[in-house]
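Repro:
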Amino acid sequence: MAFNLKKVLKALLLSTSQPLAIKDIQAAFTRFHEQAEQLGMTETEAAVEGPGAEGEAAPAADGAAEMPATDASATAAVAAEPAEEVIAPPEDPELYADVPSLITATQIREAMDQIAADLRLADDGILLIEGNAGYRIVTHPRLARWVRILRQEPAPVKLTQSAIETLAVISYRQPVTRGEIETIRGVSAEAGVNKLLERDLIYIVGRADAPGRPIQYGTTDQFLEFVGIKSLDELPASDVLSSRQIDEWLKTTENSHTPTDTDMGLADEQLPLEAPAPEPAEAVAAADPAPATETETPAADVPAAPETPKE
């Protein structure tokens, strides 16, 4: 019967609550063969180095020569009786026979995929997932309420939109300071950072080499499990949040200027709304006086002012 790798892996998964990495599985197979070699050497030595192997009688114990003949014969009869042997249960050849000395990572992944498919097909509320630290058997999310009742845990609180945006900036930009987060988002990030620290989704990486030595933040392994990825390399590609483009954007922001139509992607032409405003009518009249519209009265028709009588 061929060696059943899938059964062995399932037993190893159920034997621990910690993630099972591929290197840990390979180390277990290495120890199996080391123990098998030591056991074989021990059995060989016991067969070769048995009592009387060199043709010499075993030394008599003190006082054996003075023992009466009747006592000696009784002792010999007891020694002649076969001892009760401890019979070990036979080992399952499917699990312990023809164990390969080397199990590759590809073979382990293929067997794990088969176990995961069997668990999904059985629909027993148990799943096999692969995290950043290895494989682990977990309960189905639809049974989460029963698990929380057993553990007497409250229902998880969802992250706000502000906290999610802050987490996205940290995950793509890390290590990042709170000042950089606020510059990118345009609002205060203190509440979002504190909430993410409480949830163990981010942690303090260190301090930036900048004036004031501001604290830098990065994501934790709990963040990888939260979003369901094995490493940060599996994050969706984002040109908007990439470190290179953010650096360029921050430099441009520091040397900011009033955006023009060309910066905004508009045609470099004068729009109707930007036409010069008309000047006030009084200023126009003062600059270019218009001819009088009314006809002036001739001087002859205007009555003369009465003369003041002379004394």
